Amino acid sequence: MKLNAKDLASGALLILIAAVGLWLNEDHALGSARRMGPGYMPMLVFWILMGLGVLVVVLSLFSGPDPLQRWTGLESGMLVLAVVVGTAAWWISPLFGSFFESTYNGVGFGMLVGLLVMCWAAGWRLIGYINAAMCAFSLLLEKGGLMIALIATIFICALAEPEHRQRPLGVLGVTIFLLALCWWVFIKQLDIRVAVWPNQY
Amino acid sequence: MDLLANLAHGFGVALSFTNVTFALVGALIGTAIGVLPGIGPVATISLLLPITFGQPATTAIIMLAGIYYGAQYGGSTTAILLNLPGEISSVVTTLEGYKMARNGRAGAALATAALASFFAGTVATVVVAGSGPLLTSVALSFGPADYFSLMLLGLIISAVLAQGSVTKAIGMVTLGVALGLVGTDVQTGQQRFTFGVPELSDGISFVALAMGMFGIAEIILNLERPEARSVLKTKVGSLWLTKEEFHRAIPSVLRGTAVGTVLGILPGGGASLSSFGSYMMERKVSKGRHLFGTGAIEGVAGPESANNAAAQTSFIPLLTLGIPSNAVMALMVGALIIQGIQPGPRMVEAQPDLFWGLICSMWIGNVMLLVINLPMIGMWVKLLQVPYKFLYPAILVFCSIGAYSVNNNVFDVYTTVVFSIVGYIFNKLKMEPAPLLIGFVLGPMMEEHLRRAMLLSRGDATVFIERPISASMLAIGAIALLAMVLPNLRKGKEAAMAG
Q: Beta partners for B184?
């Protein structure tokens, strides 16, 4: 058996997306070939995607072997836990203040918590810390201002690289340099509309 | 002499203080990221896109273009000195270039690379200037059906030339088209696949998608690999070529320029494909082919001229037809659309400043790059001493602020996070993100042309094979697909991609 597990998973992913797309597309009027409604093009695209997904799956049975990376028990467990804890954090976040009720702050908080939970497993540390850093940036930017958001972002993303933990002085240097650079580029030169310090607006 | 008048106009635009400054900024950034392994033009352009919004469209495109061809110059420096390709397009330069450096001819190899790139860039500029208006007049006779077929052809070829399985690449293109459907339907105003989220009514943010998949996902993947950066041991030495080297390099430069110019125009082509193509050609036909593997100057001159020529001619389909031929050009389309300019055949007439200004700035940029690269080579080598662990926080911070500043909304930052995770999964499953980006850009335009074509033909789909232009596009696409099914050709492609 020359199973190409990567292709098999890719094909399955395409089929899944196509199926969900076709299901969501039920809401849109198809129209006719002459006067296409909003649902016509999506219908074509998702059926083609479905067909390609099936083709990829069929071909994957012969084009291997190309196994997927194995997850350790800790990694799978932490992934599940991250989803559960992240969703829970999103649900209960309005309790921490009205800030989390509005727009996407609640979702962002859930994502941040979930990603940080993932970092418990060594294999997820890179993807976890890097993305958590961006979530922290979004959460802090509007209330805390650019500088606070940047410090948090740089600090969290530095956790992803083990060398930084051994020699934290380098991170401090990077932080000071980037704060100055971002202030000069984005505030002084481009003048993007964002608070620099807490509660400026 | 229309062309001369147009070029004069173009130089007028390109030589304005702002545009010269930004061409220089683009060339500098391009050289820097070209020198640094692990960060390429796609990631850089997507993370600098938001910065360009505040500028006029011409200035923005001039700077972004400078990054792309600047990266071709910079990429060769690390390839020659450290056997480490700064860009994918300079992978083949390592083969002969590094050998030359080991033989004590590093300076000559660097000079060859820079001069070959400059020559190719100059030729390519003339080709773009000459063929642009010509192709535009042809393109103006295109009907909606022809456009649809042309875009379909572009998608097919970009998938065929992508790395790895063609079926999966076509799947990625289709997925890109599907992602492009999200948002308000242009004709009926209905919200599609937005889940009631108001921020999605304009569609998925192009910047967030590109940054997530190419910028952030690449950081994670680069950190996963242990850093292999050797220290410079070779001395650069004299930059002058010997008479013999010069004579050997010239035919290779000419051939490389020709290969690059042609392959750059092809949809799905671009700098990397051309340098591979040129290397294969030099190994077969050049006079010094028996010296390959020992530091043959032909193996530097050919690919280096090819990648720079291609980086510039790949603008032709974008500027004349509005069709991006590779991921970098897809980003340019994004930049233009955000500026309120619809890329297409009318752009040459409606935006003469942009079209001619860009062409002339390419040549000016090439002159600057020659100066930036040759005398200042030592400075760029020093840049390599900045380890990636200090670089990635900067990339991340720029992406975050950039994503936010597009709409002054944190929603786009979260979208970037989502796409970085998606991009990471795609990479683990060996699904190429570049075709997806092209599909995402072309999808909405294809839908519009498809609807218009079908309305004009009263619902008769045979219009696509009845119109000669459209029919030939579809035929070429079908041939390209069939060719990939034939085992021999597929092996040839795999060999070419493996270098």
A: B191
3-state secondary structure of B36: coil
Mean predicted confidence (pLDDT) in B486-494: 60
Interchain CB distance below 8 Å, B175 and A150: no
- Taken in order B159, B165, A128, B42, is the CA torsion positive or negative? negative
Cβ-Cβ contacts under 8 Å for B497 (sequence gap 6 or more)? B163, B276
CB-nearest to B393 from A7, A46, A158 is A158
Percentages helix, strand, coil for chain B (3-state, rounded to 5) are: 75, 0, 25
Q: Which chain A residue has the Cα nearest residue B193?
A: A24
Task: Give the burial class of B244: count Cβ atoms within 10 A of its Cβ; 0-12 exposed, 13-18 middle, 19 or more buried.
Answer: exposed
Assign B285 to helix, strand or coil.
Answer: helix
Would you say A65 and A3 are in contact if contact means Cβ atoms under 8 Å apart?
A: yes
Distance between CA A129 and CA A184 in Å, rounded? 26
What is the reported pTM?
0.85
Non-local CB neighbours of A97 within 8 Å, separated by 6+ positions: none
Q: Find all residues with CB under 8 Å of A174, minimum gap 6, and list them.
A: A154, A158, B390, B393, B394
Q: Which of A15, A35, A41 to mutate to test the interface with B (most CBs of B within 10 A)?
A: A41
Give the residue-averaged pLDDT of B400-407: 86
pLDDT, tens digit, for every residue of B6-36?
888 888 888 999 999 999 999 999 998 888 8
Nearest beta carbon to residue B390 from set A6, A103, A170: A170
Using pLDDT thresholds of 50, 70 and 90, give the confidence band for residue B73.
confident
The string of DSSP letters for A26-70 reads GGS--B-SSSB-TTHHHHHHHHHHHHHHHHHHHHHTTS---PPPP
The residue whose two tokens read 């792309």 is B68
- The single-letter code of the amino acid at B260 is G
Pair B450, B150: CB distance under 8 Å? no
A128 lies within 8 A of chain B by CB = no
Q: What is the pLDDT of residue B343?
A: 84
